[in-house]
Amino acid sequence: MFFHEAEFNSAFENAQKRHQDLSRKGAEQKFKGGLADHSERVVRMHTATHLLHQALRDVLGNHVHQKGSNITAERLRFDFTHPQKVTAEELKKVEAIVNEKVAAAVPVEKKVLSLEEARKLGAIGLFGEKYGETVSVYTVGDYSKEFCGGPHVTNTKEVGPFSILKEEAVSAGVRRIKATVKEKTPV
Description:
The protein has 187 residues and is of the alpha+beta class. It has a single domain (33-181), classed as Threonyl-trna Synthetase, Chain A, domain 2 (Threonyl-tRNA Synthetase, Chain A, domain 2). It contains four helices and seven strands, in the order ααββαβαββββ. The chain has helices spanning 5-30, 40-60, 88-103, 115-121; strands at residues 66-71, 76-81, 108-114, 134-140, 144-147, 162-171, 174-181. The strands form two sheets. It has a four-stranded antiparallel β-sheet with strand order 1-2-7-6, covered by helices on one side. A three-stranded antiparallel β-sheet has the order 3-4-5. α2 packs across α3.
């Protein structure tokens, strides 16, 4: 069976388009919310980013906003707005706050609200993101309130010990923290 060149080109282009569509859909699912997967460890680290975000705001100020994140089983990466290097003392305070919230066994709850209700509640979201009519808001007790679509633990005690590994510049006015959660200690 022989194809004419035009038929071959058309079949090739259709196959290439199907492959690109599948790849794009797979990437969207794999990296939705900056998560590499939905394993227990990644979910624990994802919840830790919410605690980290609020702790950074507590220590550095309310000018801190999330600019992005990437979470794998090995580490979490959290990019945020801040004009200068975070000092070692500030990093220790941030780490201590996160670990205090983990030790306090604070419930993590999800509410689906209108965007307006979420903003009135004081929930913060990823700057520049497009949100629909309704949003999921995750609250960690009365400590943290954020718009988020990712999976979370139900209680901060599930996060386990939190440790900041590194802080560095990404670009002008944007800093990055790399951190991890250790294996949970048996109860």
